[in-house]
Amino acid sequence: MKTPAAARPRTRTASRVAAVQALFQIEQAQENLETVIDQFVRHRLGEKIGTDGYEDGRIPDAEVPLFARVVRGAARQQDTIDAMLSESVPPDWPLSRIDPVLRALLRAAGAELSGADGVPAKVVINEYLDIARGFFTGPEPGLANAVLDRIARLLRPAEF
Questions:
Q1: Which end is more exposed in the chain, N or C (fewer Cβ atoms within 10 Å of the end residue's Cβ)?
Q2: What mean pLDDT is predicted for residues 105-133?
Q3: Cβ distance 131 to 102 under 8 Å?
Q4: Residue 64: strand, helix, or coil
Q5: Is 90 inside any structural domain?
Q6: Residue 3 lies in a domain
Q7: What is the DSSP letter of 45?
Q8: From CA 132, how far away is CA 121, in angstroms rounded?
């Protein structure tokens, strides 16, 4: 018997949430990329025996390879991604003025849109919009939608 879609864990979404959190931590604490990835893999991702899975900020359903690929991609391409983001946000909202969680989210999505792993651009955008809605209740998801749509059209024009 198949598990209903609503009951199945969204492992790729969980991986992306963890990537946004890791990118936020890297920027805010000025920590080393590989150190943060290691901390997440050892202490935040996967199930911990004796818990319900989500205690202490854990993300039990995350796929480590996707998580690490997004974080490394965003960090390695940050200058390029930031240049695209700066061109895509309204002129009165420089990248430094954007909420740091939203900035981390946009960088993670930019890294995925830059990659060639076969995930359609619209799927990447929708995933990160779902994540944005989990973090924000104001206009931020709308801004993320507009920025990611513009970046996706630049990076993957054949998909539009």
A1: N
A2: 93
A3: no
A4: helix
A5: yes
A6: no
A7: B
A8: 16
Residues 27-37 have pLDDT tens digits of: 999 999 999 99
The answer to whether residues 21 and 7 touch, using CB atoms and an 8 Å cutoff, is no
Residue 105, CB half-sphere, CA atoms under 13 Å: how many?
27
pLDDT (tens digit per residue) in 3-55: 445 555 688 999 999 999 999 999 999 999 999 999 999 888 876 554 455 45
- Whether residue 33 lies inside any domain: the answer is yes
In a domain, 53, yes or no: yes
Average confidence score pLDDT of the chain: 87
User: Any idea what DSSP says for residue 59?
Assistant: B
Question: Comparing 43-47, 105-109, 112-116, 118-122, which segment has the lowest mean pLDDT?
Answer: 43-47
Structure-token pair, residue 6:
């609503």
> Helix, strand, coil % (nearest 5) of the chain?
70, 0, 30
Domain limits for position 146: 11-155
Determine the residue type at 120.
P
Within 10 Å of residue 8's Cβ, how many Cβ atoms?
A: 10
108, 19 Cβ separation under 8 angstroms: yes
Look at residue 8 in the predicted model and tell me its pLDDT: 56
Tell me if 115 sits within 8 A of 123, measured CB to CB.
no
Structural domains in the chain (count):
1
CATH of the domain at 38: 1.10.940.10
